[in-house]
Write a structure and sequence with these properties.
By secondary structure, this protein is an all-beta fold. It is 2% helix and 36% strand. Strands 18, 19, 20, 21 and 22 form a five-stranded antiparallel β-sheet that branches. The longest helix has 4 residues, at 2-5.
């Protein structure tokens, strides 16, 4: 397991959904008003070099149990994992072989509430030498991105340094805080944000809410952004909580719909993804339609990862793992679901090299039905 996890991690996921009442602006995973559809089928044919139209998932083992409100995750070079707890504001190290948990420290300034708290987590591209861990978190006044020095030589619980904030003033809300962060193949830091329930912010180019942001490791607008002095990479998003790159370095993002359609989008710089003017595939000029859409009862997509030629999507309200096999920029076949209802709400997917992925559940986030052992990390073999 250690050798496998040391492979590059394309995404570490996050998000939330609701099985209950609707908050202002609609919480992630709000129950749809339309009738629930039947399950998706898979079809089509694979290209010689592409993934099969129909895949498979095997749960190999449970790596660890008893995590509390896990959200962001990242694999360390030695194969261990770092897991962020949304509500406790702590980062826990999970041994990649034994599953042993050790709290390495807490992030000062985290103010949990609603869908906010300690969310995304990523390692610096130069982590082997700089030991920097990046986090996205909610404070009393805003959402922020900060970096912390991780010093493994210090005692457990005291190994994280003080947050060095590189970006502040991302709007916060009880719902729709976004929260996923990931370093891309270009070594720039990407962040998915939410519109906090204020739908107008998604189309406001001056607001950091309802966007995908692209920045340098110091938090400055990255070279090559659509506007030179802006962090905004794409706009018109409702609540982005999954980011992943495929083998051709294309960026994919998952997005929560309101009452009708959840989305998987292929992200291109400067493009407008429609919210609140369009939900799902609207075919409206000036807006980009999603590549895949799901009824909100089937998905509420949080974390995503790329493995074995497919995008793997963790569904919260849908309580299943979705597989989207790709043929370039389009699905090779209809999405296929696995593990429906077996482990409850699913939060984060981590690509662990080859056919191995890790799946983090989300039953202790206040919207699940936790059982003994929740939350857990599952080791899967997929194709």
């Amino acid at each position: 397991m250690t050798a496998v996890l040391a492979a590059s991690v394309l995404l570490f996921a996050a998000g939330c959904s609701s099985g209950g009442g609707k908050a202002p602006g609609g919480p992630e995973g709000t129950a749809p008003t339309a009738p629930e559809p039947s399950g998706s089928a898979s079809g089509g044919g694979a290209t010689p070099s592409g993934p099969p139209a129909k895949g498979s998932v095997k749960v190999v083992s449970t790596l660890t149990k008893g995590l509390k409100s896990p959200w962001g995750a990242a694999a360390l070079p030695d194969g261990d994992l770092l897991i962020a707890s949304r509500d406790e504001g702590t980062v826990t190290r999970v041994d990649g072989e034994s599953g042993k948990q050790t709290v390495v420290g807490s992030v000062a300034g985290v103010a949990p509430g609603g869908e906010g708290g300690l969310l995304g987590l990523a390692l610096s591209p130069g982590f082997a030498s700089d030991r920097q861990v990046y986090v996205y978190f909610t404070t009393e006044s805003d959402n922020r991105v900060a970096r912390l020095l991780y010093d493994e030589q210090k005692p457990a619980g005291q190994q994280l340094g003080a947050p060095d904030t590189i970006l502040r003033d991302i709007p916060k809300g009880i719902v729709h805080n976004g929260g996923r962060i990931a370093f891309g193949p270009d070594k720039m830091l990407y962040a998915g944000t939410g519109e906090t329930g204020d739908t107008g912010l998604s189309q406001d180019r001056k607001s950091l809410a309802g966007k995908i942001l692209r920045m340098t490791p110091d938090g400055r607008p990255a070279p090559g952004n659509p506007e030179a002095d802006s962090l905004v990479y794409s706009l018109g998003h409702r609540n982005v909580q999954g980011l992943a790159w495929d083998s051709e370095k294309r960026l994919w993002a998952s997005e929560f719909g309101q009452n009708t359609w959840d989305e998987l989008n292929l992200i291109e710089p400067g493009k407008n993804y429609g919210w609140p003017e369009v939900e799902g595939k609207g075919g409206k000029p000036g807006f980009v339609d999603p590549v895949v859409q799901w009824k909100t009862s089937e998905a509420s997509p949080s974390g995503i990862a790329y493995a074995e030629g497919s995008i793997w999507v963790a569904a919260l309200r849908g309580e299943r793992l979705w597989r989207v096999p790709l043929a370039g920029k389009e699905p090779l076949a209809d999405p296929q679901s696995f593990l429906q209802g077996e482990y409850g709400r699913l939060r984060t997917v981590i690509s662990a090299g080859g056919s191995k992925i890790l799946l983090v559940t989300s039953e202790t986030d206040g919207r699940g039905s936790p059982e003994a052992g929740d939350d857990r990390i599952l080791q899967l073999e997929v194709k």
